[in-house]
Amino acid sequence: MTQPLTLQPVSGQPQPYFPTANDGEEEADLTKYVNIIYDNRWLIASIAFFIALLGAAYTFVVKPVYEATMLIHVEEENGSKDAKNIFLLHGDLHHDNILSATREPFLMIDPKGIIGHVGYDIGVFLNNHHDWLDWDTRLEGELDGAITDFAAALDLEEVVIRRWAFCQMVLSWWWMFDEMPDTFGEELGLSDIWKV
Questions:
Q1: Which residues contact 88 (CB under 8 A, 6 or more apart)?
Q2: Does residue 108 sit in the same domain as residue 174?
Q3: Are 123 and 168 in contact (CB under 8 A)?
Q4: What is the total count of domains within the chain?
């Protein structure tokens, strides 16, 4: 067995560390704790499983509480000529959010659930339609026909639909500029297509 190296202290100098015979006791203690945990692994796993089971039971047994506060102000019909056109809107109505369905001819998915003038949803739809058809030379005629159809179906003036489409296009391009300024181009100038 080797003898530990002894050094003579030098004043003012830090002394190097050399292991001693007592250093192994800390390792033995850690090993002892690991062995205790290993020996009781089934007890620990059972307790963890029981706690998880109680949490799951609580989740399924207790009635969830959903709370929301909202202030909705819709003007009376005599206060605004457009009050009859205030609805719960989809908020992001475009071709990818309209699916054919079995229970209804069409199903709208991914609603945002906002309350407002129906013209907003029409504007969202028409601007997406515009984006998809901008390569088509008949675009202006297609959009004019869509505006006429929406106006007739919803008893709106065409100019109201055009104004909502214009506002929605400006708003969406502002969002794009705010969130992705590198991709922002001259598309805002296309808002002139709505002729307002």
A1: 113, 114, 115
A2: yes
A3: yes
A4: 2
